[in-house]
Amino acid sequence: MSLHILYQTWSTNALTGILAPVEPPFDAEAAALLERYPRVQGHLLSLFRTFANSTRFLRKGVPNLLDRESPLPLREREIVILRTTAHWRCAYEWGVHVAVFAEAAGFTTEQVEATVNETPQAPCWAGRESTLLSVVDSLSATGNLPDATLQAFREGWSVAQQLEVIALCGTYHTISQVANVARLPPERFAARFPATD
């Protein structure tokens, strides 16, 4: 690849100041870093190509918390992610996670929509899940937990699980901001964000 093409790929977004997905061909460092990112149906998500505006961000911007070593069950992890992205009205990331993980998490259609439009006390949520939604709502709104919610969180989740929930909220807050500021359109396979009140 010529230096001119490398400069042109990088400079299009850098000089316009528009945060947007970088189109291939990627420079060698970005291409190597992007190899570590997951693909859906062989497709590199627009979000990850948006991260490619900064190789530093590709390396350090957000941790991969979707691994099998998570101390949280998949269903609880996805409750946290869907509620956090719904809080930030990030239709892009919410839709990706619904399409990729909702069935494996065992969510009903009502529960998926409730991550956007219902309170934690909605009848579709069991006691533990209702508590988890309250935790996410408080962390997203204030970065803290009221005493009663904190007590329930401590009683219901191990310290490792508590840290994972907090890290997921922070990570998906960042991802939501990136996707929203970049005005990323939905991926072709993604679920559509429900209408909100």
How would you explain this protein's 3D organization?
By secondary structure, this protein is mostly helical. The chain has two domains: 3-60, no CATH class; 74-181, Up-down Bundle (AhpD-like), CATH 1.20.1290.10. It has ten helices and no strands. α5 packs parallel to α10 (159-181). Mean pLDDT is 91; it is low at 1-11. It has helices at residues 3-16, 28-34, 46-51, 55-60, 74-87, 91-105, 109-117, 127-142, 147-156, 159-181.
- Count of structural domains: 2
What does the radius of gyration come to?
A: 18 Å
Strand tally:
0
Instruction: Give the distance, in angstroms, between the N- and C-terminal Cα atoms.
Output: 50 Å
What is this entry, summarized?
This protein is mainly α and 197 residues long.
List keywords for this structure.
mainly alpha, AhpD-like, 2 domains, 10 helices, 61% helix, 0% strand, globular
Mind sketching the topology for me?
Layout: H1 3-16, H2 28-34, H3 46-51, H4 55-60, H5 74-87, H6 91-105, H7 109-117, H8 127-142, H9 147-156, H10 159-181
Helix pairs in contact: 5-6, 5-8, 5-10, 8-9
